[in-house]
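Support case: user asked for a sample of complex input and structure output to validate their parser. Sending the pair below.
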Amino acid sequence: MGRRSTTRRIGIADVALKAGVSHATVSRVMNGNLTVDPAIATRVREAAAELNYQPNPVGRSLALGKTDTIGIVVPDLANPTFQAILRGLSRAAARDGYRVLIADSSEVSSEEAILAGEARRRCDGLVLCAPRMGDAELEELAPSLQPMVLINRTTTESRVPSLMVDYGQGIQELAEHLVELGHTRIVFLSGPSRSASNALRVQGLEKFQAGHPGIELQMIDGGSNFEAGHGAVDAVLASGGTSVLAFNDLVAMGLLSGLHERGVRVPEDISVTGFDDIQFARYTTPPLTTAAVPITELGAQAWHRLRALIRNEGSQDAVNIFRPQVEVRGSTGPAKN
Amino acid sequence: MGRRSTTRRIGIADVALKAGVSHATVSRVMNGNLTVDPAIATRVREAAAELNYQPNPVGRSLALGKTDTIGIVVPDLANPTFQAILRGLSRAAARDGYRVLIADSSEVSSEEAILAGEARRRCDGLVLCAPRMGDAELEELAPSLQPMVLINRTTTESRVPSLMVDYGQGIQELAEHLVELGHTRIVFLSGPSRSASNALRVQGLEKFQAGHPGIELQMIDGGSNFEAGHGAVDAVLASGGTSVLAFNDLVAMGLLSGLHERGVRVPEDISVTGFDDIQFARYTTPPLTTAAVPITELGAQAWHRLRALIRNEGSQDAVNIFRPQVEVRGSTGPAKN
DNA sequence: AGGCAATGAGAAAACGCTTTCTCATCCGAT
DNA sequence: ATCGGATGAGAAAGCGTTTTCTCATTGCCT
């Protein structure tokens, strides 16, 4: 048992030597080029197998001008939404032999541009989730980043597809659901103010308000995580609202937990909705009424769009809209009075 | 406004041409080599800036023999545990200028070996989470994969550090906690039978049983996700146990949800514990008593160990054990009788 | 039997960078 | 004034592949 790991990695030259051919021939064999004499081909394959040869991907990438890798930039890897996008993307890409490189900007929006550029240079394409980046910067960056697909953002650069979730539509439907249950005082527990997706929700609610003048709609500043929801309990109770539209499922869960601590019953005393339908939403107590976003599928779709770009296939529409679907569960019920 | 994106990527040669020097000099300047005349250096830097030149990482990697990238192989990107490891790893690595490439084996253990090899070849090091891989295969693979660090596995290959969570210890402490509350009939809702970490829990429980002959300990086959927990409700209720040690938080949450549907009160009628202390555990109703594993920190630690290996720094102990810490919350209470 | 197309494999260039090697230039010292 | 040692930059090799170019060999056809 020699210490083989001390040895330098074996390369194409070693195989060529062992098989008594040139490295060109080895390369041809490894790539299934048919212009090689079958006898020689098997000889090469045997040598390769014996030496356990695996082509060096870096050399390969340099010669081929592609890395078979795509990058994804996310603002926060702790957020279930981005985890799900990543998962969908990764699995779909893997199916086509692509790997994914992740770049977590940790919510530092100034990092996003740099990370995106670095990731892009190492990869054949990019999926960009940059909810906080300024429009101007995005616009400026876009050309140098493609092939790229944007999540929940758009740009005027026509070659950059966008995958959008219609948060406005979703939140309107949730609000309608509450109205149908007889609620007239609704509270919106908002997300981060600079978030693009929060803006869409606000727009949706403005439309909703316009169509329902009789409904009293309040906004309370929140955030995007448990703590925000948990910390908003007092404000929510003080508001007098009979129902709450939380920014997302995380916020809703924090709120649910806080309400339970206060002895406030859901949905008897107050109704609560989330947004996203993360895995956990189904298992809260009570199970959370929410707007389901097919987010893993969005990740997969991101890959398909990116793949089309990489392969230079004629593209479909620039923007692809995902409609959230209301999932009525136990956290919403008839208004108290 | 030319269509710059149509143009070939600009390379070191373009900068050299523009600055009127050789590409060697450009390279020297870009890498901060001090043996370049300051006047020329600035000229080069200006040219580089003007052309917006960024070195091609692939060429760089080939020349340098390193990619500044590490890989991580996970069995399931949908599992919060691996998400947290990934997060910790990614952030820690980013701090040192490394990126991470992910390989999701989708629980297909036959894929693990191949994925690991491929990922390793593209990267400078590997973090391997392969709970289902056979010992023999792991042993065989280990030498060819290093530098590598293992999560919750060990190998005889001394140069491969292991980061272990002491599941045995954790589950014992949870059981002790239940005993202190007066429980004498405890159910263990087990994880996947081929999982290494499940085996550790079973071992821990055997020790526990040896020290507490009076306690009746039952095992029920479960799984590792919500559905497993939710589906085990009947079996749990039929068992007559007054408390349940769930394989992990996900299973516990599924169980909690199922019990709630049945109108069984937690912890009044039955106590439930989880394992891992994922983010969500704190916000279930009631909040989940669990054994907290500092999993994000484990991810960070994985990077530090891997970094030491990559830098060839003398390593510390081969295996690094993380002790779970019992977090008592609302899902456990005194035994019913 | 001789010539020509086809076949198949080696030589060499290319990918984009880093780094060693080499050499011209300049300075100070003798 | 000449030599020697720095200094600094270009030439070229190397990293590990793929692929084009080139050429030797084979086999077929006339």
